[in-house]
Write a structure and sequence with these properties.
Layout (H helix, E strand, L loop, with lengths): L8 E7 L18 E2 L2 E2 H10 L4 E8 L4 H10 L4 E5 L4 H13 L7 E4 L9 H12 L5 E6 L4 E5 L2 E6 L5 E10 H13 L7 H7 L5 E4 L12 H12 L4 E13 L3 E4 L2 E4 L3 E2 L7 H14 L4 H4 L12 H14 L3 E10 L9 H12 L6 E6 L5 H4 L3 E11 L1
Parallel strand pairs: 1-4, 1-6, 4-5, 7-11, 16-17
Antiparallel strand pairs: 2-3, 6-10, 7-10, 8-9, 12-15, 12-18, 13-14, 16-18
Helix pairs in contact: 3-5, 4-10, 5-6, 8-10, 10-11
């Protein structure tokens, strides 16, 4: 995380329930129901497994659950670990946290995700991680309530509930391991059954960030929910990739440095620009906006707007990254090329990658920065300016 680089990220998936509401005869827990060629649990683990920053994923199974153990082992993912869950979701999450605590620090982050939410998108995981990277004490994935809500009494409508400000809590939810464990233990000791991690943290005065999630991130509770989940997952299987490319050029002017990838690099000249003239970030923003079909950087941050005079281009990238997540996409990878005779970027490359990855909310391994010259040809070869190109791949 950008504000606490040493903090690691883990996940806990409580999967010890028997699913009586899903199957009154308890023939099979809902997490093992078949869905789009796999089990509900496999799909629920999918987005977590696709996030490279998650170091370990602990699945809390009920005692003697050989089916779950075999399924997890068959996935062949070394990050997946098993522990025995409890009699309630609250207890299962606690046991997952206890299992993690042997090798994790109290300040490490933990994503808690329902075993029966198979439609989680990778972009939603990235959005949660970006929220705490920005300083939130925790983050809750949620969807605003748009339907009219009724309160019931004795089988009849008792009142219409004001829906302004109401959100449906989804998962994952993200908190620091030590704080969440303490909050859940305190609720358990007080005899209070909490229905999600946020409720336990709220009892301690913590106000986590609300992160807008997809309304399609449904929880499989009844058998008919499988039909909805099937439609969502089948729909994602088509047209789930987007490619974008961007280019930016700036002429050299007065100054003693250039900004590239958010790094200030000493140079004999500066650049002529309305903002800080960071061609790397501008090209990357254009590539992302292009992949979304959302125009270009000039439309979103026009040079006619005084607010952007001398602006730090990293603010542009963070805003564009938020648009990517809001559209339900996650970055698969980004590749950037700097074209200039000078300055040389080799010793600055790692810092540039770190900045870009932090602003995009992704693992540094998903971002590549390289440089080339034009063999002294053209305006770049004559040292009149510098340029950058960027290509990105997004996945929904």
């Amino acid at each position: 995380m950008s504000h606490a680089a040493a903090d690691r990220i883990f996940a806990v998936v409580p999967a010890a329930g028997r699913g009586e509401r899903f199957d009154p005869h308890a023939r099979q827990p809902k997490q093992y129901a078949r869905l789009a060629g796999a089990t509900v649990l496999e799909w629920s683990l999918e987005a977590l497994r696709r996030e490279p920053r998650i170091a370990r994923i602990v699945i809390a199974l009920r005692a003697g659950d050989e089916q779950g153990a075999a399924l997890i082992d068959a996935l062949g993912d070394a990050r997946l670990e098993r522990t025995v869950g409890g009699g309630s979701r609250q207890e299962s999450v606690l046991r997952g946290l206890e299992h993690l605590s042997a090798g994790a620090a109290p300040t490490d982050w933990v994503l808690v995700h329902d075993a029966a939410r198979p439609c989680l998108a990778p972009g939603e995981v990235q959005a949660l991680l970006a929220a705490v990277a920005a300083g939130a004490p925790g983050a809750v994935l949620a969807a605003p309530v748009f339907d009219t809500v009724k309160r019931e009494a004795a089988g009849a409508v008792a009142a219409t509930v004001e829906r302004a400000g109401l959100w449906r809590a989804l998962t994952p939810q993200l908190f620091r391991l030590g704080e969440l464990r303490s909050a859940l233990e305190a609720a358990l000791a007080a005899g209070e059954a909490v229905t999600d991690e946020s409720q336990a943290m709220e009892r301690r005065g913590v106000r986590p960030a609300l992160v807008a999630g997809s309304p399609f991130n449904i929880k499989v509770t009844r058998a008919e929910d499988l039909e909805v989940a099937e439609v969502v997952l089948r729909g994602r299987a088509t047209a789930r990739m987007r490619i974008g490319q961007g280019t930016d050029v700036h002429a050299f002017g007065e100054g003693d440095h250039v900004m590239l990838g958010g790094v200030r690099i000493a140079h004999t000249r500066g650049v002529v620009a309305h903002s800080d003239g960071d061609v790397v970030i501008h090209a990357l923003c254009d590539a992302l906006l292009g992949a979304l079909g959302a125009g270009d950087i000039g439309q979103h941050f026009p040079d006619s707007d005084a607010r952007y005079r001398g602006a730090d281009s990293r603010t542009f990238l963070r805003e564009v990254a938020a648009k990517v997540r809001a559209a339900g996409f996650a970055l698969v990878n980004a590749d950037v090329t700097v074209l200039a005779e000078a300055p040389r970027i080799a010793r600055h490359r790692a810092a540039m990658v770190a900045n870009l990855a932090a602003d995009l909310g992704v693992e540094a391994s998903l971002v590549n920065v390289k440089a080339t010259t034009t063999e002294r040809l053209g305006f770049l070869g004559r040292g009149e300016g510098l340029a950058a190109t960027a290509t990105v791949l997004l996945q929904s």
